[in-house]
Amino acid sequence: MKTKTRVDNDNAYPDCCWPGTRCSEHWHNVSENVALKVVTFTPPGGSQHHPIVFISGLASVIEGFKETLIELTRDFTIHYVDTREKSVSRITGPAWFDMEAFSSDLSALVSLLGLENGKYYLFGYSIGATMIVDSYRHLSSKPGCALLLEPNATFNYPKIALAVMRLNLPLFYFMKPLAKWYIWQFRINRKEDREMYLISARSLDNADPVRLRKTALGIVSYKIWDKLEFLTCPTLMVGTSKDHFHSHADVKRMIDNLKNCTYVDLENNRRTHSAELGTVIRKFINHLHPDHGTAV
């Protein structure tokens, strides 16, 4: 496996990084038929810190974390990874969309990026955080720490949604408005966390419906609980207690089952997608490696 394509562009994502940051796009062949897009941000003056590999959430877009990325890219190299269900991923043949496939992608990517044992950090959001936990035992080199933002322990969907997806009807293409309505009416804390609706709506608008359907069906039976014991590196768990979209009870249960975990509650998704999250991550890493001397 090797890097398939590289495109250097200093201004590809000017609104998502610190001024002067260098940006390059790569497509890495993580398996025979799948190449993932990775956007690498390099700080203007280089970085004295280990790089951060940031695995995005299901159907999420990079702009959703622009404030966090701006904060981190001032002194961290960031490899932002779009997972295989994204429309930007290049799939040229048969491909699976279950958790085993997602985790295998991350394991392959760690090797392809040439990351050394203990000399990089893994940061994941939602399914991206779940991938970190699931793949950790298979990684050829382990991260210095894991940064988990609202990981999914399980994936529970309404029965009617599963029934429609299993029928594989063209109707699935026209379900975005219905999905948005359902999220707004039943899954969002509209008073405390309206940002989660905006994040979800943006993700749905940019989603590849065929891949998203395959992913939803591929991960529906997944459970994280027996994988937690293998995650042995220092771990930062960031939760949102006012978010009704992710299960806060599951987050607390995960914390109780992790060996070396620090928990920070940022309460809502406005804060977890802001510069504040970048500051929380920087403080955690500085505590682990005070010799790096990063400004806070």
How many beta strands in the DSSP annotation? Answer: 10
Indicate the overall shape: globular
Question: Helical stretch count?
Answer: 10
| Helix-strand makeup class | alpha/beta
SSE string, helix = H, strand = E?
A: EEEEHEEHEHEHHHHEHEHH
Proper CATH architecture = 3-Layer(aba) Sandwich
* First-last Cα distance: 38 Å
Which CATH class is shown?
Answer: Alpha Beta
**Which spans have pLDDT < 50 for at least 5 consecutive residues?**
none
CATH topology: Rossmann fold
Strand-residue proportion? 15-25%
Count of domains: 1
CATH superfamily: Alpha/Beta hydrolase fold, catalytic domain
Largest sheet: 10 strands, mixed
**Radius of gyration from the alpha-carbon trace, in angstroms:** 18 Å
Overall helicity:
25-40%
Q: For the residues shown, what is the average pLDDT?
A: 85
Structure, explained:
With 296 residues, the protein is an alpha/beta fold. It has one domain (3-155, 222-292): Rossmann fold (3-Layer(aba) Sandwich). The chain has helices at residues 66-72, 99-112, 127-135, 159-167, 176-187, 195-206, 209-219, 248-257, 269-272, 275-288, and strands at residues 3-8, 22-31, 34-42, 52-55, 78-81, 90-91, 121-125, 145-149, 235-239, 261-265. Strands 1, 2, 3, 4, 5, 6, 7, 8, 9 and 10 form a ten-stranded mixed β-sheet that branches. Helix 8 (248-257) links the parallel strand 9 (235-239) and strand 10.
